[in-house]
Every structure is written in C-alpha cells, then in structure tokens.
Amino acid sequence: MLHLGLTGGIGAGKSTVAATLAECGGHLIDADQVARDVLDPGTEGLAAVVAEFGPDILTKDSRLDRPALARRVFGDEDALRRLNAVVHPLVRAETRARLADLPDDAVVVHDVPLIVENHLAAEYHLVLVVGADATTRTQRLQRDRGMTAEQIEARMAAQADDTQRAQVADEWIDNDGDPDAATDQVRQLWRERIAPYAANLAAGRRAPRPERPELTSPPQGPRSWAVQAEAILDRLRRAGGDLVLTADHIGSTSVPGLLAKDVLDLQLGVADLTAADRLAPALAAAGFPQVEGHWYDSPKAGLAEPGTRWDKRFHANADPGRAVNLHVRVAGGPGWRYALLCRDWLRNDAGARAAYQQVKEHLVATTGSTRDYAAAKEPWFDQVWPQIQAWAERTGWAPPQP
Ligand code: ADP
C-alpha cells in the first residue's frame, strides 16, 4: 500500500488537490477529521479526555467543547502532551482500521496539514506539498472562508514556511494560478509516478532505469541531493528500526560540487548479512525492494585476502520518480568502511574531485550502458587507492561509530 502525505499552508489548496487525487483513485484519510471522530460523543476517546481534564471540557449536551479544551491546553505544554498521549494512539488505530480492507496496490492519501511542523514526512512513501504564495492564499481565505487578514496572518505565522515545506516535498504542486493547471499537474503525477510506484510496491519490484548513464549538475535550491538523501534515510531508519545500525549518504551525489548521475547512493550498516536479510521485507515495504543476485564489492589491496569478496545486499527504488541505489553492508566491515572513506576523501580533496570528474566525463562519452560505466570506474579507484590510504593516514580518518 502506498502512503502519500499531502500537506500545504492554509489556503494553498490542499483540499482541492485531495479531491483530484481521490478522483484518480486515491483513498482519502483526513487527519483532522479522524482526530475529531475519535472524540465523538460516546467514544472511548472522549471518556479518556474527560478522565484527564474533567467534565468542564463538555458542553451541556455532553459533547466535546472544543474551544474549552483548546483554552485548557493553550500555552500549557504538559496538558498538550497529556492530550496528545490520549488522542494520537486512537488516531493511529482508527487510521489503521480504515485501511484494513484496502488492496495491496491501493494509494492512501493522508491529508495532514502539519506534516512539517510535526516532523512526519518519514511516515509516508511520498510527500506532496501544495503551494501558493501568501497573498494569493490570503485573498482566497478572505473570499471563501470569511477569515480576517489578522486571523489568516496568525495561522500562517504558527505554520512552517514554504522553504521548510519545499525541503520535504517529493513533489510540489503549484496552485498559484488557474485551478485547472494544478489539476492537470496532479493527474500527470498520478499517471507517471504515483500509480506506477503503487504497482511496483505491491509487486515488490524496482522501477526501470534509463539504459544510458547521463551526468547532471547538482540540483539547486532547497531539494539538494543531500536534503533528498537525508529524507530517504529517515524513511529507511524508521522502516528498519533496530536492525539499522548506520545510515549514510555515499557515492558521487554525496560529494558537493561533483557532477553525477541523478541516482542517490545510500548505505545502511547492519550487524551481519543475516540481519540484512531480516531487514529486506521492511525495506521493500518502504519502497526499496531487494534486487536479486549475488552482490559484492571488489576488495582493495591490503584490506582483504586476494580472491575474497565483500558480500552485500542491494536494494533499489520502486518509485519511478527518484532513483536510489541502496547498499546494505556489514557495519564496520571493509566494504562499508571503504564507501565512507572514498566519500570523505573526495569531499576533502579538490584535486581528487577534479580528477574523478574528468574520468566520469570520459567514461560517459565512451561507454554504452550504465553497467559498463560503473565497471569502467573501478580501475581508477584501484589506481588512486594508495592516495586514498595516504590521505586517511595523514588526517587520522575514522568512520562514524556504528
Ligand atoms: P487548504 O485545504 O489548503 O486550506 P483549500 O483547498 O480549502 O485550501 O482552498 C482554499 C480556498 O481556495 C477554497 O475555497 C478553494 O475553493 C479555493 N481555491 C483552491 N485552489 C484555487 C485556485 N487555483 N484558484 C482559486 N481558488 C482556489
């Protein structure tokens, strides 16, 4: 099941986009609505809130007096924490119950205004942000909801801003202009990314990749490769729990300033390969199915006996919109260590970066497939290995502690 998180500032057009996603086949879960439903008259939730805060938060006809409850918790962190401790588990259970009967390839659209504020982005396979500039949003809310400029300003000030939202946005839906333009964008997104991602996820298969390698410049703006990688690492840590000992961005996209294929290389460190195999189903459910085959890195001189291999597990993205190579290696082992060392050497040595870039450009121009390109880079790394070792010794390089 594919979980989409849909968010945006007040008045941006989240409900409008949610309706289009529902038309495309998405199952809507409105987080605010669920949070209200679990405190309806006669519910276990309402009884628990009354037990915590007393009967003063009820109206005369025994319904929840929302303004009274809001006054009770406003500015009182402890009271808010106690309220959340009652409501959040009920919201999660109710959400699960509503999803129980959906098929494996369903797309669930979670309409959650405060994804950024509450750090919830890692709970979803994809986060969609609906954006429109503050003046447009203010005009819409005054026109359609009768809010005053002051009320709107206060709400906006309490929410995250668009730069913060852009950092978690796997997709940004621009709703500044004609509503039809946003609707078209959403429909196209559904066809090209959401529907195929959901199908891949249900089938446990990776998304196809272009046959030929192509180098691109690092993306500018809030969605740098580093920001995108960190967002995915958060999802992987959450999915893998205690089995994930380390989670790092590695490879060319982790080196600022280097041209690279638009593929994020990520590395998870695990206790041993048995743990890697136990982790595999959780990674697949999070959107990163294991790729069949015997995967290993070629050992470097001095780090292993000749003829030995550094076995690993390899996973890749089911999402056709974001290519990821996910290497699962034994934390502290030589392959795990080597990946981090190469990254740090390239990050710290401008000459090494320039030399590597030249090699990449030459190989892209002369090799055919992505596989040939990847293989052709190996001899260069063998050649510079003494340099890398010397750098590590000189600087006292040590990997992060697993
Ligand atoms: P949100 O759920 O993000 O707070 P809504 O979807 O309710 O925002 O949109 C706010 C208001 O603006 C609604 O009345 C909606 O009909 C209107 N609206 C949404 N998108 C557009 C658009 N592109 N142009 C004009 N009005 C819009």
Could you explain how this protein is built, in words?
This protein is of the alpha/beta class. It folds into 2 domains: 2-203, P-loop containing nucleotide triphosphate hydrolases (Rossmann fold, 3-Layer(aba) Sandwich); 225-395, Beta Polymerase, domain 2. The chain contains 14 helices and 12 strands. It has helices spanning 14-24, 31-37, 44-53, 66-73, 77-99, 134-145, 149-158, 162-168, 179-203, 225-240, 273-285, 334-348, 350-366, 370-395; strands at 2-8, 27-30, 107-111, 126-131, 171-174, 215-216, 246-250, 260-261, 264-270, 295-297, 310-316, 324-330. The strands form 3 sheets. Strands 2-3-1-4-5 form a 5-stranded parallel β-sheet, sandwiched between helices. Helix 1 (14-24) packs across helix 9, helix 3 (44-53) packs antiparallel against helix 5 and helix 6 (134-145) packs across helix 7 (149-158). The longest helix has 26 residues, at 370-395. The chain is elongated, with a radius of gyration of 25 Å. The two termini are 32 Å apart. The relative contact order is 0.10. Bound molecules: adenosine-5'-diphosphate (ADP). Residues 8, 10-16, 130, 140, 144, 175, 179, 182 line the site of adenosine-5'-diphosphate. The site of adenosine-5'-diphosphate has 14 residues, from helix 1, helix 6 and helix 9.
Briefly characterize the structure.
The protein is an alpha/beta fold and 402 residues long.
Key phrases:
alpha/beta; 402 residues; binds adenosine-5'-diphosphate; 5-stranded parallel β-sheet; Beta Polymerase, domain 2; 12 strands; 2 domains
